[in-house]
Each structure stands twice: as structure tokens, then as C-alpha cells.
Amino acid sequence: MKSLPLYITLLFFAIVTCLTSCVREDDEPALAKISVSRLYISFSEFQLDESRPPYNNIDIIDRADTLTFEPALSYNSGIKGGAGISFSPIAKFIFQSSANGAGSVNDTSIQVMSVNAKTGAPAYKGLISNGLLRNVTGLAYHYNKGSENLYVSNLGAGSNPSHIYLFQKPGNFRGKAKRSQEIALGTLTPWTMAFKNTEDNADLLMSVTGEKRGIAIFRDILRKNLPADSVLTATQFPPKAVLTIANQGEVRGFSYSARQDLLAVACYTAGTEGNAKVGRILLFEKASSLLSATGDRAIEPTRIITGSATGLVRPLDVAIDNRDGAKYLYVADGDTKIVSRFLINDTGNVAPNKIKQYTLTPVALSLDARGPGEDL
Predict the structure, then answer these.
(1) For residue 288, which of 364, 372, 228, 203 has the smallest C-alpha distance?
(2) Which of 15, 48, 62, 356 could cross-link with 72 by S-S, CB 3.0 to 4.6 Å?
(3) Residue 294 is assigned to a structural domain of this protein
């Protein structure tokens, strides 16, 4: 009986230690209790007839890696035609930019949505509205040590060059938002963007088309200690490298998986008289060595998914499952209005593993794929 008080004391200290050391910090990323595989799809159409129900411009296929490849949820974000879409498990936000209706509507905004951890369902969180956002193609969110940054690529028009715009603490805006920085891109024509997957990595990757086609790498973009409201020309802050891709047509979306060490790029050759469009997914294995390059260089794909059996005509975006042992990659095709699932090791003229046919046009993808107990 003399040992009972000592036992109670030790038990008390064990409980206190667990409560103080085992509680997660508020700003730590959410961890998946079970594996997660949710594919977010952005559609470009907008219902112009206000007397009719609006289109749902986001679909969520959950789970995207199972036999049933069907949407679990559809959602209308309120934006006038969807363009780029990006989910962050750290921010627990979905960002979706407006397609801006090619001039038929005026919506220069980015919708910010919170996400239900159990279902993946979006809900209104905020709105980033700025007249500069006339033709947004890419969104890339980065969080590190309390710093939240959303980078936005915007196509220029006429004599106005394309730009990258930075919005800090993007979840705090409820309307008009001032950009913190901007970088002019000169002759580069941007499409989608993404950061490398490691938390402290500040390399921004951007697919580019036009005169140079491939992947531009902006090294350490977060560590420039630039003053707020700074405006940089293309010569003041050029990419450290452009990995050029020749003879594959127009470059669109891309996806990089650090775990698979795989880079996938969507592209297509525009049809000419008597010739149909040809869609391709270019796959670059051991991509980390390519993405560490300095200076422009040409790169060649290790594998190409293309041919009549693939159903690819004008692929606009691609997403790779980044989990250990992942099997799939996903493709959105703007002409066929199909979202396809391919095996991650596919090559050549191969049929998709699964497809989902839509009536609306899928233009961008974002995949939330996490194993149990991990974040991205």
C-alpha cells in the first residue's frame, strides 16, 4: 500500500506530460486518419441566364483511386466560370480562379473555400478581388512558419505582359484585395504553377507556352526579402531555368511528384486542315535532377501517353498521386470533356483505366492524396 501514492503521482505526471506534449499546434497541417484520395475538378462554363439554375463549377471525385470513379459532391463556388483550382491540406482551403468568360462576363476574382475534413465538401471562406486578375491560369499556395502566400499567374494581353501576383494571407480577404508583389514575365506565357512538395522549399515551378514551351523554375521565390508592393520587371527577376520541350505542341498543365520523382506535362498539337488535334501526356522520370537545373536546357520525355486509344485530344491539366505506392495519374481534356485516370506507369497508345464523361468542360485539376497519418 505504501507504493500507491507513488503510483498515483507518476500517473498524474504521465497524463500532464501527454496533454502538454502531445497536443498539435494550431498551425500544423491536418493529418489524415485514413488515406485520402479526392480529385477536385474545375469547370469553365457559367450560366448566363439568371432565370435558370447556376452551373456547379466544381466536382469532387471521392475516392478517386477506387473502382467507382464517380463524383461524390458537386458545388457552385459562385465564381463566374471556373479556371485554375488548387487545394492545400495545410491551409485547408480550395482556391478557384474565374475564367472571366472570355469577355462575356466581368469577374476578376479568386474564390477561397474552406474544406470539410471528413467529406471534402467546400464552403465559402472569402474572396480575393482585384482588377489585375483578368485571365488567371495558375494558383500556387505556400505556407512556412506562419507565412501564407498565394502566387497567381495571369495572362497578359496586347502590349501588357503576363505577370505573377502575390497575395499574402489569402484566407483573410472578403472582397477587394491588394496584391503584395508582382513579377512581369516578359515573353513567357504562363499556365499552371506549383511549389515543390517540401515545406521549406521556395522553388516555384510554372508551365509556359508560346515562344518558350516547357517548365520555368523561379528559385527561392519566397526568400527575396522584397519590400511590400514591389514591382519587378522580367529582367530584374527572371527564372533561373527554363526546361524547354520541343515538338510536342502547346504546353498546358503539369504535375510533379517528389515521391514518385515524376514530372507529367499535358500538351497537344493543334489540328490543321485535314489533321485532328493530338493530345499527349509527357512523363519525365527522375525529374528531380531536371528541376535542379540552372539555365535554359532542352528536356526529352521518358515516356509519352498518346494515341487514339487514350482518348486524349486537348488535355489541359494533369495530376499525379503523390503517395507511396500510388497507382494513378489523372487528366482533364477540354475537347472531349472527359476526366481520365491512367496508370502511373502507362506509356504509348493505352486506354485509360477509368473515365468520367461530363457535359461541362473540365479545365483544371487538384488532387488531395494523403496516406494515413501524413500531410502533403
Answers:
(1) 203
(2) 62
(3) yes
Counting the structural domains of the chain, the total is 1
Spell out the alpha helix ranges (H) of the chain. 3-21, 287-291
Report, as an integer, the average pLDDT of 345-350. 98
* pLDDT at residue 256 is higher than 50: yes
Residue 135, domain CATH: 2.130.10.10
Whole-model pTM? Answer: 0.88
- Do residues 356 and 333 make contact, with C-beta atoms less than 8 angstroms apart? no
52 inside domain: yes
Single-letter residue type at 52: R
CB 264 within 8 A of CB 283: yes
pLDDT digits (tens, 9 = 90+) for 318-332: 999 999 999 999 999
* pLDDT value of position 27: 47
Query: What is the spatial distance between Cα 166 and Cα 142, in angstroms, rounded to a whole number?
Result: 11
**Strand 174-176 and strand 122-129: pairing?**
parallel
Looking at the domain assignment, is residue 51 inside a domain?
A: yes
Q: Where are the beta strands (DSSP E) in 169-293?
A: 174-176, 181-184, 188-195, 204-210, 214-218, 230-232, 241-244, 250-257, 262-269, 278-285
pLDDT at residue number 20: 38
Range of the domain at 190: 28-370
Residue 180 confidence (pLDDT) above 70: yes
